[in-house]
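Hi, here's the filled form for the chain we discussed.

Project: internal
Contact: R.S.
Residues: 438
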Amino acid sequence: MFVIHDSAQHIMQTIDDYLQFDRQHIWHPYSSLNSQLPIYAVESAQGVNIRLRDGRELIDGMASWWSVIHGYKHPEIDQALKHQIDQVSHVMFGGLTHQPAIDLAAKLIAITHPSLQAVFFADSGSVAVEVALKMAIQYQAAIGQKQRQHFLSLRHAYHGDTFGAMSVCDPVNGMHSLFTQALSQQFFIEQPQKRFHEVCETEDFLAMQQMFEQHHKQIAGLIMEPIVQGAGGMWFYSADYLKQARELCDHYGVLLIFDEIATGFGRSGKLFAYEHANIAADILCLGKALTGGYMSLAATLCNQQVHQAIDNGEPGVFMHGPTFMANPLACAAANASIELLLKSAWQTNIQNIEQQLIQSLTPLSQLPSVADVRVLGAIAVVEMKQVINMQSIVPQFVQLGVWLRPFGKLIYIMPPYTIKQQELEKLTSAMTQVISNL
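And the returned structure, exactly as it came back:
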């Protein structure tokens, strides 16, 4: 335990000790205890600002990995959690239920596609995907298709870090290639090449159609990140592709699974990204922004066809049940976050963010080091031609008073929806300055 003393000299010393302990003993996402990448200690956060323990303040351009859509320390979500603590912070969901979970399920059913009528609460986005995969296999078994044990996925897809979720991530270019031989073997086709707003042609669907023709008897479901492929490359593709996927799934008896963990709750400009195509999935995964970034919680929704087959088949129950399923605190945060989003002018906010991102970042496409600039909703990506040196670029952003965490060749931004014009300008100006100097 490190004690913070009064003198500035002692404070700096204890911060150094604090960070040194972290580096020696604590793994961070996709990190090594030998890592030389900089790490920063957070003192507090409010609005769109993260305050470091050394006194510096950073404007958060990451919304803590898509999740903190209302900003930090929002009074309405804070109050909802304080109220729930006075009632019950956790109770098992086996044989028991509670108002926050019932209210949240009702909200999710009301705001998603009308066909989605059953809700399973999970711990995290990866687990929501695991649940979706198990639902699909159990559904196929219930209707007499027990041989359908595999999935079709897209190249450059990312669906999570647990073993089932890893198996439907890109097996070659993804983050999990080391585990390929240990994972269930799935089917993959190339990612859609037509950009968002572009019209797909017949040849754009040939790979999917051929895969279904050859292997549909083995495929339980097609899993996709609708419109936006996130951590696999931040690629925005045509809504036409989703429409054709829906038709082919219906024709071959394959369930369509949408992973909206990153895109749900307004990030793409629609409440859910599948709305760009005006279609519905059989199974829908939600997470990240579900609680406004306050608690770990996810949900997997399915239509009546799926849940009735599972409920009426063998063994007559759905085979999953986390210890912290439907945690009351997390459900209370989610209820407050959804209410906050729906009563806000979120569509206008997203449109304003999108326009500012386009105006500020599109000129970067002219730089010789930049391969592409992409903007959709409250997401902007600057793709470089070379892999970025994280050890040098992150401190440059921190020095400019912003928090951005690139990966691979991508420098991207996805701020809270509550960000003000001048705050967003500081973020885009920092991106422009750093990228111009690369």
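Let me know if anything looks off before we file it.
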